[in-house]
Amino acid sequence: MLLRHAIGAALRRIRLDEGRTLREVSRDANISMPYLSEIERGRKEPSSEILAGICAALGLTLLDLLNEVSFETRLADAVVVDLTAATGTVTAITSASASHAPEVALAVAA
What is the rounded end-to-end Cα distance, in angstroms, of the chain? Predict the structure, then answer.
């Protein structure tokens, strides 16, 4: 995962968790709405000044954002298996990379 993708995903998740629109955050960060959208989609690599403005608009510090980016990268490496959809048995889950085993999350319906 590229850093710009993780940053964008974290910013979008935080913005949506706060119930804020692109328009609101872009206005508060003093950047254009299309540019913020491009950042959130991982298509643009913002400068540290732009990131600082977005963080301020979201009530975050840059350190808060980096912690969220760390969370996003761990999510990207995780494997999720939905056992509610399984019709057979799951015998093994293996990683394509032997040097970096992913986290495994299991979802089971009650």
Answer: 33
